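In practice, a research group might receive sequence data for several interacting partners and want a quick structural hypothesis before committing to experiments. The following worked case mirrors that situation: the sequences arrive first, and a predicted assembly follows.
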Amino acid sequence: DAGVIQSPRHEVTEMGQEVTLRCKPISGHDYLFWYRQTMMRGLELLIYFNNNVPIDDSGMPEDRFSAKMPNASFSTLKIQPSEPRDSAVYFCASRTPGRSSNYGYTFGSGTRLTVV
Amino acid sequence: GQSLEQPSEVTAVEGAIVQINCTYQTSGFYGLSWYQQHDGGAPTFLSYNALDGLEETGRFSSFLSRSDSYGYLLLQELQMKDSASYFCAVTVVKGGYQKVTFGTGTKLQVIP
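A structural hypothesis for the assembly, expressed as tokens:
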């Protein structure tokens, strides 16, 4: 298995532009999470899906952020318009089905976003 | 909401043992996990405790006391490659769904 795949690895964009981050979870995983990591705030949960349905988006900072999961193998996180304070590493993670958390989450390599 | 506390930095000598503590406050607690993250890398899952007691995985062990809302990660026979950040994370159940909230991380530096 290729693991959780995120693209792009790095993104540099100008303030005001739209940014779309992409994630392909591990096949068969039923949970998908979007996290944001910064030095100041650590790892913040933005939104998570279960079986493609958004369950909790209370971590999404503003209406400028939106996330979709049109099918079990693809999710996007969109920022429109982007601002310099959105600069961070964005991680996608997925989890194997079942009540047990013994296998933890598998994280993608992350997208390092820089908004200038 | 949830809150987790862990030390921000720890330094230990190669070959030694180090313990990283984590205290938490949350409702709907389901379990405590530990993740390792090297600089520039992604968090990787180390261990999970749902019940009180010690879980051992090779050189790493994790402990949980639900009554004390406390856990720790124990790293034995430290190696230079263990230099990384270590995060505790609580799994909570809300509305039948699980979600994980991470602590701010402990940066471990292993010195020769």
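Before designing any experiment, note the following. The first strand of chain B starts at residue 3 and ends at 5. Chain B has a mean pLDDT of 94.
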